[in-house]
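Quick entry, no commentary yet.
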Amino acid sequence: MSINKEAVSRKSSMTCASNYKTFGLAVQALVALEKHDGKCSSADIASYLHSESTLIRRILKTLALAGMIESREGRDGGYRLKRDVRDITLADIYSVLEVHKSISHSMMDGTAEHCFGEQIRDSFASILSEIEDSTLQILESRTIADIVKESI
C-alpha cells in the first residue's frame, strides 16, 4: 500500500476514529463473538471487554459495514459473525478500521508548512509506506481463528 502526503492529510470517512486501541477491541470483539457462538448485544460485548458501549458500537458498526458481522435490531437482536473466523485476517480488520491513518496523521502533523517541512513530509511518506507494507504482510498471516485458538 502506497502512502502519499495528500492522502494522509484528508480526514477519514470511517465511522469511528481508529487507532491501535480500536484495532485491539475489534479483534477482541470478533473473538468474543466466535466464543459466544450466537448473538451478543453491544452492551454484552462492551461489558465482556471492559470497554465503553459507545466505542464498541462504533467498532461493531464498522465491522458490519465491512461484512464481517451482521446486526439485528429488536428484542432478539444483537451481533453475530457473518464470515467464518478462518477467513477474517487481522489485515482485513486493520484495513477496514484504517488504523494506518492514525500513525500517518501523527507523523505528518508534526511537519510544518515550509520548504523543510515539505522535504521531511516526502521522506515520512516513504517511511510510512514501508511500515504499512510490513505491517500488512504480518497481519495477513494471522486470522481471528488463530487468535481464538491461542486464547483458549
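second:
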Amino acid sequence: MTRRNKTPYPMRKCVGCNISKNKEELFRISCHNDEIKVDIDGKAMGRGVYLCKNEQCLDRAVKRKSFYRAYGKQLPEKEENWLREKIRKEKNE
C-alpha cells in the first residue's frame, strides 16, 4: 500500500478550473438553509465549494452551472457581483 504525499496545508479544488490549490488561495462559497453566501472567514456552516480568486474561474463556474450542480440553485447575482468586486480589488493591490 502506498502513502499519499501529505501537504502541510489543506488543499481544495476550484469549481471553475478544477485545479487543487491551497485553501487560503480560494474563496469559499457555502450553502446553509437554502441560502448561498460567500464565506469570508471560511467557518460558515453548510456545504461549501471553492473558487479561485480570478474572474475567469468565476465566469467558467457560472457558465458551467457549477453552483447549480453543487446546491441545486445558481449563485445569487448579489453574491456574484460581490465576488467580482473583491477579485478586482485584490488584483489592483
